Amino acid sequence: MAGRLSGKVCIITGSGGSMGRAAAILFASEGARVIGCDVNVESAIETMRLVKAARGDMVSLQPCDLTDAKQCQALVEFAVSTYDDCGHRRQSSHAATTRAIKFLSQTLPGSA
Questions:
Q1: What pLDDT is attached to residue 28?
Q2: Per the omega criterion (within 30 degrees of 0), is the bond before 63 cis?
């Protein structure tokens, strides 16, 4: 049933890999606006090309290394600035991002 994700914004990490690519294509086919990211620039761009060729809506931030807290924050800011209509969730998104960055900075090797 097409359209189950219509009006939703989805962030898919690792969108250049096989599982991320499959998720991006599927979510877009169901009407989601997809934001992808990957450290591999070429494969991320190819995923975006495939989604758009199938008339899906996708943007991508690459390279994006999610082991870097600043790049995680940049991804969320990219998502909010790209799809500003989700701006009413900006405050809770910021709070969640702040918690995630704090958690990552405390748990990732070499981040102390």
A1: 95
A2: yes
Beta-bridge partner residues of 11: 35
Is the pLDDT at 17 greater than 90? The verdict is yes
Single out the residue of 66, 86, 84, 87 nearest to residue 75, CA to CA.
66
Q: Say if strands 9-13 and 57-61 run parallel, antiparallel, or are unpaired.
A: unpaired
DSSP 3-state assignment of 12?
strand
Q: Per DSSP, which regions of 1-112 are E strands?
A: 9-13, 33-37, 57-61
Range 102-105, long-range pairs (CB < 8 A, 24+ positions): 104/67, 104/69, 104/72, 105/69
One-letter amino acid for residue 17 of the chain: G
The pLDDT assigned to 3 comes to: 85
State the architecture of 9-107 in CATH terms.
3-Layer(aba) Sandwich (3.40)
**Per-residue pLDDT reduced to its tens digit, 45-96:** 999 999 999 999 999 999 999 999 899 889 988 988 898 755 444 444 445 5
